[in-house]
Write a structure and sequence with these properties.
The chain is an alpha+beta fold. The protein folds into two domains: 157 residues, Roll (Structural Genomics Hypothetical 15.5 Kd Protein In mrcA-pckA Intergenic Region, Chain A), CATH 3.10.290; 203 residues, 2-Layer Sandwich (Pseudouridine synthase), CATH 3.30.2350.10. Helices cover 14% and strands 30% of the residues. The strands form five sheets. Strands 12, 13, 14, 15, 16, 17, 20, 21, 22 and 23 form a ten-stranded mixed beta sheet that branches. The protein has a five-stranded antiparallel beta sheet with strand order 7-8-11-9-10. Strand 9 and strand 10 form a beta hairpin. Helix 2 packs across helix 3. The radius of gyration is 24 Å and the shape is globular.
Length: 391
Amino acid sequence: MSTLFAGGSAAILPAPDICPLPCCLHFVPDYCHAALAGLQREVPPEQIRFFSGQREGGRRWVQPKEVNPKEASTHQMTISKSKAEPGGQRPQSPLSSVRWNAGSSSSGALLADHLSEELRIAREEATDLIDFGSIQIDGRQERNPSRKLSGSEEIAVNWPWHGTRRHYEIDPQRIVYQDSAILAYDKEPGIPSQQTPSDGYNNLFAALYRYMKKVGGRDPYVALHHRLDQDTSGIMIFALDRSANRRLGSAFEHHQAVKDYLAWVSGIPRLDEWMSREDIGRKAGHYCVCPRGQGKPAETAFKVLHRCPEEDRSLLLARPETGRTHQIRLHLAAAHHTILGDRIYGGRSAARLFLHALRLTVPHPITGSELIITAPVPLDWPEPHGVVLSS
């Protein structure tokens, strides 16, 4: 353990050998938030930059180095407003991102050098954050540490919660279909479909690109037209050819792709089949169902496959007719049958989110013939581990 002194207060932080973040950014909700290169010593306040505790409902940035008052607005880091509460205030939560305007004094500087200076971290750590996909310039991810700044850019740092550890690669055994035009993969739960603002490495799209490059020996073409929630497992399909990509995209756009999901839910539905037609909208930054006409249209067909009254749970087949974010989860929550393990929408506690993309039916983008791709029922699911579905 090591002690960090900041503004007269002391916060006990983990030693670097158990530090979850290689850039040594530590989140201390009740004390301070600091970014510094080492924690094996007591660091004087004038040598660090940190977010102080709550002051009148919002965090205040403490800036040790002297800044020209005329340029203060270009150097002051602020917490991202993307998760702000109504009225512009954020709830008390650990630091997730910082952003600032580069300023004219940074004109001509390399991005990695600028980050190293502004964040008080080593250049190698700044380069690692850039390569990891944690840096955005003017709202777009930037992966080039040698990019020269003009001084007018808005720079955002999205701190990776688990550091820049590169832990995910695809399992070739989970490729359930592949030809020269497309590839289908049985996605693991807990893995994002594509890059997140703080992590451009540990996601299925990036890992599949690396795999295809490794086996093909050249830069591959990989494209996707649909996503699964991070905690949802099951079928995802990718185009490996430009012409196939256009036709695959057209199939999803014109609702020619049929997606079937399995979901274990709480309760015993009264009906064997039903259709949910509540709109999907947003309220206070969260997705929610709303009356028709007040959000985006959404329809999901549900069918009961198995009832377990002794455990007050049921296995359902869900077929979304539209593709709204969290559509199945929201429609089931609105029907008072939340998915087991759905922490967002009030599901019963479980080891994982019990939602699985079981089957995808789509016209083959080259031959036009119907292609039915199925992912096995996950082994960590309750019995039954096999289901028989009609078309």
